[in-house]
Amino acid sequence: MGDLVLQKIAISGPTLASMIQRLSSSPADLDGLLFGHVTCIAPSALSDDSVQSTSDSQLVATISSFLSFPSLLSFYDSLGRVDSSRLTLTNLNQKPLIGWFSFRRKTPLRPSMRESSVTRSLPSNPQLYLPVQNASSESLFAPSIFLLFTTPLQDQFIQTCQYRAFQFQSSNLCFNPLPIDIVNIGPAFRGHYGAFSPSSALPFLNCELKSSSSVNECRNEENLFGMERIAKDQSELDMCAEGMQIGRLNQLIGPEAVNYTAGLEDLYEKMLCKIESLATLVEASSAKVVEQENHNRKLRYKVARSAGLE
Amino acid sequence: MSLDGFPPFISAQLHYLINHFPDKIKVEQVLSGGKTYTGGLDRFTLLIPYCLDYIKWDIIYNAEFPLAPPDIIFGPEDEDFYPLHMTGRVGEGDLKFRSILSDWNYKDPTRLLALIQELRDRYMAYQKKRVGEVDDDRLTFEISTICSREGIEMQISSGAEKPEEVKFAVPLMDMNINKMVHGCPWRHPQKIYLQVIYPVGKKYASTPSAPRLKLMSTTELRALFTIEDVKLPSWLDGMCMAEYLPHLEESLQKQVLEAVSLIDIRRHFIEALAPLFGRPLEADPVFCRKATFLASSGSFVFLVHFHISTLFPKQQPALMLQSSQHISPQGIPKKSSLLAEYPWSPRWEASQMAERIFDFLADESLNFKRFCNESQPQH
Question: What's one GO-annotated cellular component (chain A) (predicted)?
């Protein structure tokens, strides 16, 4: 399959910021996977502002999330060969993989020997290829993006993070540097908003009233399976709603509403409490994770020190 | 060099590399990759000799993960050097190189050396392939005729500003100079190289221009032989390296043999000084390039330093007098300037040379004494 050549990479400000936060708080070098989607963007033809317009449509990869690993050699070995059994759709939680990133402090901003090998073998599993959105013809994108982060050689008063994006071209075995757009509000990003698709991790909930489903009884098996899922989602939602049904929302309109808002507010309050307790749970568990990470570090440290004594 | 600040497993490997690499290797830009410095230093730049120059490779260990082998970033000019990519035939060397990384044992101090040596071999093959791809008839011919020479290294250099050039480092003469010097102190084998730089021909140029030639030697060889004194035979139009090298090697071989025989002449000269000046306080026993004697003129006691060049006896020794009684305000003993102008003939016997110098110094010591006393601060 021929390479699909990207014109640029887009990343939203918050995603980039959370990545940099993750990197700069890491005690050592770090790497991980990048998720997102690839879109064919037709440049806006409107020109009441000074946007340079190109006639060709552009292929843009958008990084929407990432996953970092706490240790080196996590999904590849010391020769940079990707272990494809670890990168399956199930392992990745069905997330669309578009590439990977590496962060190493105080090093040149060029791909290293191992990094180029990992980047080259990342697209080895065709199952992970992504369909390009908005494309005129059916085309698949192989995860070939490499995002490299480093810090300046000299320590600085201001924390500085340097980064550079590449696409690896398997046809001529070279890294093609790519510009990075940090998606923001403004005329330059109109194309992005046209092609925006929400990528929420929450399941799609069918809020249709149950009674209405009985109207069309004749459904094929595939939809039956779909209905089972909807029923399961609904029961999960009902558990949160504590008997509050969607039909009762009707009561919010009209004269009865005044009595009814109190009940609704009560429900909100309970939900907020739940969220709060969830937050404390998360806090406690991440404290445990940090503790474990520190413990691991100390163990590794011991190993490193012991080597010289033998 | 001090290797403090590295975790023990890195410093053991780096020490071993520096002490066992066949050539002089330098370490620069030693840094720590941790958020804080608690983990210790774990990344540095290695300057590895290649083609009479250095290639700079960044070696990146990870103090937090000692079990992982180091990663390497190559120079910006070698962007498409991917030693880990397997393309086409897998040779024995490839397998050996890959096994170094896949069976990495951080406790084994020899690993970094093995890795760097294998990578350098891979780099040599990569440069050879690149040079071979250059579209230039003369270069293609040169490579086909001298490629089999052992130890030849080549490199292509191209930048945005400078024109493309191909550089060859040709080791000359298959002789072990280290073995020829009695009591040889050199740790690395001493070699003489010819550097040949070919501009890559423009297709429309009618006659290819002559390559730039330069003789180079390992630095320690200077004690025996000054490479700058060798006059290169001229490069005739239409010549090729295979024609040029045999003549050069023949004449160089003679000169090196002569330089080795000159050691004994210098030794003989120093021995001839002893009956007049007494036993030397200090003398260079291997190359006989330096000797220091204690002398006196009346109550004035001073040292005489002899600096004997590699061209001795054609070139007379340079002398320097150093007073044992006069000290400058900075606390340094008073010294004369280098004395290299005095009666001399290379045809004299060693004993006559010694006598003439002795006579010359008998007069010169008076001048030196006066110089020392004059500049002495008045009390």
Answer: nucleus
